[in-house]
Write a structure and sequence with these properties.
The complex is a heterodimer of chains A (109) and B (178).
Chain A (H helix, E strand, L loop, with lengths): L2 H4 L2 H13 L1 E2 L1 H7 L4 H13 L3 E6 L2 E6 L6 H13 L3 H8 L13
Antiparallel strand pairs in A: 1-3, 2-3
Helix pairs in contact in A: 2-4, 2-5, 3-4
Chain B lengths: L8 H14 L4 E4 L1 H7 L8 E6 L5 H10 L3 E3 L2 E4 L2 E6 L6 E2 L2 E2 L3 E6 L2 E6 L1 H15 L2 H13 L4 H10 L3 H12 L2
Helix pairs in contact in B: 4-5, 4-6
The chains are: A alpha+beta (109), B alpha+beta (178).
C-alpha cells in the first residue's frame, strides 16, 4: 500500500509493525509477515542510518523504535496509522492485539 | 597549516568542513563537539558530528574524506593521526521537529567552522534529555547554558512544543543552582 512511497515492501512492513507495536526486532518482523529476514535487516539498518529509527540492545537482540528526534515523525506516524486502518481486519487485529501485560515464567498460555 | 595530529577538535572540524565545501558538500557541526566549543572544552567529546545539510550521497562523502586520509569504519570516519572520530548524521538539521535556521561561523587557521548556535546546542542536548531522560545530555545542556549567552524564552517556547515542560522546569531549576 505504501510501497510506492517507501520504495520497498519490507520498509512498509517494518514501519507498520513498529507503529503498531511501538518496537520490534528484525526476526520478529520477518516472522510476523512471513517474509525473509535479510531484507528486513537491511531496511532497519537503512532506517536507522537515516535517523527514522533508533535501536537498543536487549540481551542478544537489537530492538528498534521510532526516533523521537526525527523531525517528520508526527506526520509519518499519522500516515502509518491511516495505512493500518486499510489493512484487512484480521491483520489489524494480529498487529495491534499483542500481549503487553506481564506473564509469569512457566505459566501455560 | 597545522598537521592533523596538532589540530584541536574545533580546528579539525573546520578543516574537514572546508575540504568538504570545496566538493560541494555542506555540513554543519552539531552534537558533543558543539558543546565542547561553547563550554570552552569543559565538556570533552571525541566525536565530531557533521550534519549533511544538502543531502549529498554518502558515497560522495566517503570519496571526499578519503582525499584527506579519513577512512570509513562502520558508520564513522577515522584518521591515523587523531583520536577524533567524524560522523555524518542524516539531515535535515533539526531540533525536535523544527528546522535549525541560525548558523554561527567561526574562523580558524584550518578553515571556516559552521556550527549550530548556542541556543540550538542547548535544545539539541535537551531533546535527548526530554525524549530519553538522558542525564548526561541534561548536564551538557546546563553546562552550555551556564557558559554561553542563550535565549531562554526561545528554549521555553520550543520545550512547550515538545510537551516536556516538567523536564524543562528541572533544567531551569538546575540553572539557578550554584
Amino acid at each position: 500500500m505504501l510501497e510506492p512511497l517507501f520504495g520497498s515492501k519490507s520498509a512498509e512492513k517494518v514501519l507498520i509493525f513498529i507503529e503498531a507495536r511501538d518496537e520490534g526486532y528484525a526476526r520478529e518482523i520477518s516472522r510476523f509477515f512471513t517474509i525473509a529476514l535479510n531484507p528486513v535487516q537491511k531496511q532497519v539498518d537503512k532506517l536507522e542510518l537515516g535517523g527514522v529509527l533508533v535501536s537498543f540492545p536487549k540481551g542478544r537482540t537489537r530492538i528498534y523504535k521510532f526516533n523521537p528526534r526525527y523531525p517528520f515523525l508526527k506526520e509519518l506516524k499519522n500516515l502509518l496509522d491511516k495505512a493500518i486502518t486499510f489493512y484487512p481486519e484480521e491483520e489489524q487485529e494480529r498487529l495491534l492485539m499483542n500481549r503487553r501485560r506481564p506473564q509469569r515464567k512457566g505459566k501455560r498460555t | 597549516m597545522k598537521t592533523v595530529n596538532k589540530m584541536t577538535q574545533a580546528e579539525l572540524a573546520a578543516y574537514v568542513q572546508s575540504h568538504l565545501q570545496t566538493k560541494g558538500i555542506s555540513v554543519i557541526l552539531s552534537g558533543g563537539a558543539a558543546v565542547a566549543i561553547y563550554t570552552e572544552n569543559k565538556y570533552v567529546s571525541a566525536d565530531i558530528d557533521l550534519v549533511n545539510v544538502n543531502f549529498v550521497d554518502r558515497k560522495k562523502i566517503v570519496e571526499a574524506m578519503k582525499e584527506i586520509d579519513f577512512i570509513e569504519e562502520n558508520r564513522y570516519f577515522i584518521h591515523p593521526d587523531t583520536k577524533h572520530i567524524v560522523e555524518f548524521p542524516p539531515g535535515p538539521l533539526s531540533v525536535g521537529d523544527e528546522p535549525v535556521k541560525r548558523i554561527i561561523e567561526i574562523k580558524f587557521s584550518t578553515g571556516l567552522l559552521r556550527v549550530i548556535s548556542e541556543t540550538d546546542c542547548v535544545k539539541d542536548r535537551l531533546a535527548a534529555y526530554y525524549f530519553w531522560n538522558d542525564q548526561q545530555s541534561l548536564a551538557q545542556a546546563i553546562l552550555v547554558a551556564k557558559s554561553a549567552r542563550i535565549n531562554m524564552s526561545e528554549i521555553k517556547r520550543w520545550s512547550q512544543t515538545t510537551r516536556n515542560m516538567n523536564r524543562y522546569k528541572t533544567f531551569q531549576e538546575s540553572l539557578s543552582e550554584r
